[in-house]
From TrEMBL:
This is SIR2-like domain-containing protein. It comes from Breznakia pachnodae. It holds the Pfam family SIR2_2.
């Protein structure tokens, strides 16, 4: 069974202070609604739509402006030691990421090639189902879009909803699990290691796949294992996310008390060498 690393924004934040909250604040300022939009407990996709709708009505804002700002804020992000270690793992050739930037690719090479794994489809410029980047001997799947294709970037609720539709179409296709042309197949077939990923409840596309997996878990031959590495400032406490993931037949592994994020991720990767 192949090993696959699923990388979230937590890896970027080891050496970068730029967070989703800061991106949100920048988007609000670009849209000139920073005094009107109250963050509260709203999920990020909903907040994004509120920013866009308010500014569109008041200033005739074009959504492309928000996408362009996102690209400009992230295009200069640099990889760190953890990115490099992930890309140099000898037993891992596939990396799935929800990040838009190229910190993984740039940690080992200055160039890469974007390809479609489907013989019947070209490189996808919007919805990323069968498109990945090849860099040296690795494949990097940017499942929420990437900077070179701004229209592919998933920010708002509208894009999440559309992606779920595409995922459901793929899950119901006759070719599902019969090929290796999509990262979706891997989530059901391979050994998945999810790290630096918060799995917020707004990540409805990922939750829909995990849901489908557990519903069909016992019907599949050689069901796969998913490990979720949960970093917590209070690792001794049981969290809501932890109990949910366990019900989804996902193995949760937490950090040690007083173990910082970088040490936690390094300890994980040492076991995957």
């Amino acid at each position: 069974m192949n090993k696959v690393i699923f990388v979230g924004n937590g890896i970027n934040r080891i050496q970068s202070d730029y967070s989703w909250f800061q991106l949100l604040e920048d988007l609000k300022k670009e849209a000139r609604v920073d005094r009107e939009v109250i963050n509260g407990n709203k999920p990020f996709p909903i907040l994004y739509e509120e920013i866009y709708f308010r500014s569109k009505k008041k200033y005739d804002l074009k959504e492309q402006q928000l996408l362009d700002l996102t690209v400009s804020k992230m295009k200069d992000m640099k990889g760190n030691d953890i990115h490099s270690k992930i890309m140099k793992l000898s037993k891992v050739n596939t990396i799935i990421t929800t990040n838009y930037d190229y910190t993984l690719e740039s940690s080992v090479a200055s160039t890469f090639h974007t390809i479609s794994k489907s013989k019947e489809k070209s490189v996808e410029k919007i919805y990323r189902i069968t498109t990945c980047n090849e860099v040296k001997d690795k494949q990097v799947w940017h499942i929420h879009g990437e900077l070179n294709y701004p229209r592919s970037i998933v920010l708002g609720q509208n894009m999440y909803a559309r992606i779920i539709g595409r995922i459901q179409d793929y899950l119901s296709a006759e070719t599902f699990l019969q090929t290796d042309e999509s990262w979706i197949d891997m989530m059901f077939k391979d050994e998945i290691h999810m790290l630096g990923f918060g799995l917020d409840y707004s990540e409805v596309d990922i939750w829909s796949i995990l849901n489908a997996r557990v519903r069909h878990f016992n019907k599949m031959k050689g069901s796969n294992t998913i490990y979720f590495y949960l970093y917590s400032f209070t690792p001794e406490e049981i969290t809501d996310l932890e109990t949910i993931l366990e019900s989804y037949q996902i193995k949760v592994i937490k950090n040690k008390i007083d173990e910082d994020p970088k040490k936690f991720y390094e300890r994980i990767l040492e076991k995957l060498i």
